[in-house]
Amino acid sequence: MLDIVTASEWFGSEFGRPIIIGGPCSAETREQVMSTALAIAEIKEVSIFRAGVWKPRTRPGNFEGAGNEALEWLAEAKAATGLKMAVEVATPAHVEAALKAGVDVLWVGARTVSNPFSVQELAAALGGVDVPVLVKNPINPDIELWIGALERINRAGCKKLAAIHRGFYPFEKRGLRNIPRWEVPIELKRLFPNLPMICDPSHIAGKWELVQSIAQQALDLDMDGLMIETHINPSVALSDARQQLTPAQLSEMVGSMSFPTSTT
Ligand code: PEP
Ligand code: MN
């Protein structure tokens, strides 16, 4: 059992449904954050700006995020645009720094969700915190691990919870970057009907041109929102360059998709 408030009680009234989250994989520079946020703020359907500040890279030697300094850029982008800010947190120190900087929404990444020790430490740091927490599926299609992370964070007192479906690791490197296995989020929704389910089509697709069709499939399955990686200049992005949309592409995509008519 999860003791959560329903979707319409938190993001339904505050952020709209479907909730649309847009922003770069990583916050890279002040200019990149500001220019991306200002362009995204023009898209009325987008209510939350995402940016990774600490990046959980699978292999060492890659860009690992700009760290605490990036939180200042996000605070500035929030003041300039009115967009809510969302950041990935993996440690209690991340939680503390993000909340101090005024971050509005936290998310837990797929690699962190795969480790109950990390989730338990995060849950302790989230105790008594009233910000929404979005919990991605683990790397592998292990629904129990996903549920376990939601339960640990919920038992710490977080009631504004949502799940993010970002697909599952395939060994074969062709086609989609991560396999959707739609039956897994569908089963989670069956078990927890009040839990909002957001799709991250960017990490499923792995290529920007495949993002829209995955996003539409998620909406057709009545998912409650989308998180879409968007960068002012994707070709020079320091992480996930191949899958990010430009703000203009995001705007066009959101404008051309058919949204569900239900409001619950
Ligand atoms: C991300 O959102 O940029 C990210 C690292 O995602 P995931 O945890 O789903 O791999
Ligand atoms: Mn990414």
From TrEMBL:
<protein>
    <recommendedName>
        <fullName>chorismate mutase</fullName>
        <ecNumber>5.4.99.5</ecNumber>
    </recommendedName>
</protein>
<dbReference type="GO" id="GO:0016740">
    <property type="term" value="F:transferase activity"/>
</dbReference>
<keyword id="KW-0808">Transferase</keyword>
<dbReference type="GO" id="GO:0004106">
    <property type="term" value="F:chorismate mutase activity"/>
</dbReference>
<dbReference type="GO" id="GO:0046417">
    <property type="term" value="P:chorismate metabolic process"/>
</dbReference>
